[in-house]
Design goal:
It comes from Glycomyces harbinensis. By secondary structure, this protein is of the alpha+beta class. It is built from 3 helices and 5 strands.
């Protein structure tokens, strides 16, 4: 099982849930986590990935303490690690 933490800005896309528990096999990757989320929370999934399945530029996902782009991207193994999803915030 993988625990996924969401900020309030994204929790609104999945009935206010700030924590999602995703059951996956031990060899699951970040892409598998996002695919599982897409089946239960399609609105959230559309905010995270584009039509081609790539992570949107403004979405940052941390696996443990490491940002996924510094690891193996969507192919990063997630076994036993917490995941935190954070959208970028811009101001002006």
């Amino acid at each position: 099982m993988v625990d996924v933490k969401l900020p309030a800005a994204l929790a609104s896309e999945c009935a206010g849930q700030r924590h999602l528990h995703v059951d996956l096999p031990d060899d699951a990757t970040l892409a598998d986590v996002l695919d599982a989320i897409a089946t239960t929370h399609p609105r959230l999934a559309r905010r995270l990935r584009d039509e081609s399945g790539k992570l949107r530029r403004y979405v940052n996902i941390y696996i443990g303490d490491d940002e996924n782009r510094r690891l193996q991207g969507l192919a990063t193994p997630v076994e036993g690690r917490d995941i935190q999803i954070l959208p970028s915030i811009a101001g002006g």
